[in-house]
Amino acid sequence: MATTYPIYLVGGSKGGVGKSFVSLALADYLQRHDFPVALVETDTSNPDVMKSVQDEMHCIAYSLDEADGWIGLVNFCDERRDAAVIVNTAARSQTGVARFGATLASTLGELRRQLFVLWVINRQRDSLELLHAFSKTLRISVNVTADFGNVTDSARLGVARFRL
Question: How far out from the chain centre does Cα 41 lie?
Protein backbone atom coordinates (compact mmCIF):
# COMPACT_ATOMS: atom_id res chain seq x y z
CA MET A 1 0.00 0.00 0.00
CA ALA A 2 1.34 3.44 -0.92
CA THR A 3 2.29 5.97 1.72
CA THR A 4 -0.38 8.59 2.33
CA TYR A 5 0.92 12.04 3.13
CA PRO A 6 -1.06 14.66 5.05
CA ILE A 7 -2.25 18.11 4.09
CA TYR A 8 -0.89 20.86 6.34
CA LEU A 9 -2.97 24.03 6.26
CA VAL A 10 -1.15 26.98 7.84
CA GLY A 11 -3.76 29.55 8.84
CA GLY A 12 -4.40 32.48 11.07
CA SER A 13 -6.66 34.78 9.03
CA LYS A 14 -4.65 37.84 10.06
CA GLY A 15 -1.67 39.53 8.53
CA GLY A 16 1.66 39.69 10.28
CA VAL A 17 1.23 36.81 12.72
CA GLY A 18 3.81 34.53 11.09
CA LYS A 19 1.92 32.21 8.74
CA SER A 20 4.61 32.45 6.06
CA PHE A 21 7.35 31.78 8.62
CA VAL A 22 5.54 28.67 9.87
CA SER A 23 4.96 27.45 6.29
CA LEU A 24 8.64 27.88 5.44
CA ALA A 25 9.78 26.22 8.68
CA LEU A 26 7.45 23.28 8.07
CA ALA A 27 8.65 22.89 4.48
CA ASP A 28 12.27 22.98 5.65
CA TYR A 29 11.60 20.44 8.41
CA LEU A 30 9.84 17.99 6.10
CA GLN A 31 12.52 18.29 3.41
CA ARG A 32 15.34 17.79 5.94
CA HIS A 33 13.60 14.58 7.04
CA ASP A 34 13.36 13.38 3.42
CA PHE A 35 9.61 13.79 3.01
CA PRO A 36 8.38 14.77 -0.45
CA VAL A 37 6.68 18.16 -0.21
CA ALA A 38 4.46 20.30 -2.44
CA LEU A 39 3.20 23.83 -1.71
CA VAL A 40 -0.10 25.54 -2.40
CA GLU A 41 0.25 29.32 -2.08
CA THR A 42 -3.07 31.03 -1.46
CA ASP A 43 -1.67 34.47 -0.72
CA THR A 44 -1.81 35.35 -4.41
CA SER A 45 -1.22 39.07 -3.82
CA ASN A 46 2.05 38.38 -1.94
CA PRO A 47 3.31 34.86 -2.83
CA ASP A 48 6.56 35.11 -0.84
CA VAL A 49 6.55 31.50 0.36
CA MET A 50 6.10 30.16 -3.16
CA LYS A 51 8.87 32.42 -4.45
CA SER A 52 11.17 31.13 -1.71
CA VAL A 53 10.70 27.42 -2.41
CA GLN A 54 9.66 27.14 -6.06
CA ASP A 55 13.07 25.76 -7.06
CA GLU A 56 12.91 23.07 -4.34
CA MET A 57 9.40 21.66 -4.66
CA HIS A 58 6.31 21.60 -6.82
CA CYS A 59 4.29 24.80 -6.19
CA ILE A 60 1.00 26.20 -7.37
CA ALA A 61 -1.07 29.25 -6.45
CA TYR A 62 -4.83 29.38 -5.92
CA SER A 63 -7.12 32.01 -4.51
CA LEU A 64 -9.33 30.50 -1.80
CA ASP A 65 -11.68 33.48 -2.10
CA GLU A 66 -13.57 31.63 -4.85
CA ALA A 67 -14.99 28.11 -5.24
CA ASP A 68 -12.65 27.43 -8.19
CA GLY A 69 -9.64 27.91 -5.91
CA TRP A 70 -10.94 25.28 -3.47
CA ILE A 71 -11.65 22.89 -6.33
CA GLY A 72 -8.13 23.49 -7.64
CA LEU A 73 -6.72 22.82 -4.17
CA VAL A 74 -8.57 19.50 -3.90
CA ASN A 75 -7.47 18.49 -7.41
CA PHE A 76 -3.86 19.41 -6.65
CA CYS A 77 -3.93 17.31 -3.46
CA ASP A 78 -5.31 14.43 -5.50
CA GLU A 79 -2.64 14.81 -8.19
CA ARG A 80 0.18 15.12 -5.63
CA ARG A 81 -0.59 12.06 -3.51
CA ASP A 82 3.13 11.38 -3.57
CA ALA A 83 3.86 14.38 -1.32
CA ALA A 84 2.83 16.16 1.84
CA VAL A 85 0.98 19.30 0.79
CA ILE A 86 1.52 22.56 2.66
CA VAL A 87 -1.19 25.17 2.15
CA ASN A 88 0.02 28.67 3.02
CA THR A 89 -3.13 30.74 3.52
CA ALA A 90 -3.70 34.42 2.94
CA ALA A 91 -4.65 36.79 5.74
CA ARG A 92 -8.03 37.38 4.15
CA SER A 93 -8.95 33.68 3.92
CA GLN A 94 -11.70 33.55 6.57
CA THR A 95 -14.53 34.48 4.20
CA GLY A 96 -13.45 31.89 1.62
CA VAL A 97 -13.11 29.23 4.32
CA ALA A 98 -16.60 29.99 5.60
CA ARG A 99 -18.11 29.84 2.11
CA PHE A 100 -16.14 27.01 0.52
CA GLY A 101 -14.09 25.19 3.19
CA ALA A 102 -16.49 22.25 3.13
CA THR A 103 -15.13 21.51 -0.37
CA LEU A 104 -11.88 20.31 1.18
CA ALA A 105 -13.39 18.85 4.34
CA SER A 106 -15.84 16.69 2.40
CA THR A 107 -13.15 15.19 0.14
CA LEU A 108 -10.54 14.20 2.75
CA GLY A 109 -11.88 10.64 2.94
CA GLU A 110 -11.80 10.23 -0.81
CA LEU A 111 -8.29 11.71 -0.93
CA ARG A 112 -7.30 9.36 1.91
CA ARG A 113 -5.53 12.22 3.61
CA GLN A 114 -5.52 13.74 7.05
CA LEU A 115 -5.72 17.49 7.48
CA PHE A 116 -3.49 19.15 10.06
CA VAL A 117 -4.06 22.84 10.64
CA LEU A 118 -1.35 24.97 12.18
CA TRP A 119 -3.12 28.11 13.36
CA VAL A 120 -0.78 31.01 14.06
CA ILE A 121 -2.01 33.63 16.51
CA ASN A 122 -0.84 36.69 18.34
CA ARG A 123 -2.06 37.89 21.74
CA GLN A 124 -5.02 39.83 20.40
CA ARG A 125 -8.49 38.53 21.14
CA ASP A 126 -9.55 38.45 17.49
CA SER A 127 -6.94 35.73 16.82
CA LEU A 128 -8.95 33.38 19.03
CA GLU A 129 -12.28 34.55 17.63
CA LEU A 130 -11.05 33.79 14.10
CA LEU A 131 -9.82 30.38 15.30
CA HIS A 132 -13.25 29.67 16.79
CA ALA A 133 -15.02 30.59 13.53
CA PHE A 134 -12.58 28.49 11.51
CA SER A 135 -13.09 25.43 13.72
CA LYS A 136 -16.87 25.68 13.33
CA THR A 137 -16.61 25.89 9.54
CA LEU A 138 -14.52 22.76 9.15
CA ARG A 139 -16.06 21.02 12.20
CA ILE A 140 -12.75 20.21 13.79
CA SER A 141 -11.55 19.89 17.34
CA VAL A 142 -8.87 22.17 18.71
CA ASN A 143 -5.75 21.35 20.70
CA VAL A 144 -3.87 24.50 21.66
CA THR A 145 -0.19 24.71 22.39
CA ALA A 146 0.95 28.21 23.24
CA ASP A 147 4.39 29.18 24.42
CA PHE A 148 4.93 32.89 24.40
CA GLY A 149 8.11 32.62 26.52
CA ASN A 150 10.09 35.83 26.76
CA VAL A 151 9.33 37.01 23.24
CA THR A 152 9.13 40.79 23.24
CA ASP A 153 8.18 41.65 19.67
CA SER A 154 4.61 42.25 18.52
CA ALA A 155 4.37 38.93 16.65
CA ARG A 156 4.17 36.63 19.67
CA LEU A 157 3.17 33.26 18.35
CA GLY A 158 1.05 30.40 19.52
CA VAL A 159 0.12 27.39 17.45
CA ALA A 160 -3.12 25.44 17.55
CA ARG A 161 -3.15 21.97 16.02
CA PHE A 162 -6.28 20.45 14.57
CA ARG A 163 -6.96 16.93 13.53
CA LEU A 164 -10.10 15.63 11.89
Answer: 9
Q: With 0-12 CB in 10 A as exposed, 13-18 as middle and 19+ as buried, what is 95?
A: exposed
How many secondary structure helices (H) and strands (E) does the chain include?
7, 7
Looking at per-residue pLDDT, the higher value among 16 and 154 belongs to 16
pTM of the entire predicted model: 0.82
CA distance 149 to 126: 21
State the Cα–Cα distance between residues 59 and 56, nearest whole angstrom: 9
Exposure pattern of 101-120 as b/e (b: 16+ CB <10 Å)?
Answer: bebbeebbeebebebbbbbb
Query: Domains of the chain, with CATH numbers?
Result: 22-117+127-147 (3.40.50.300)
What's the CA gap between 135 and 32, in Å, rounded? 30
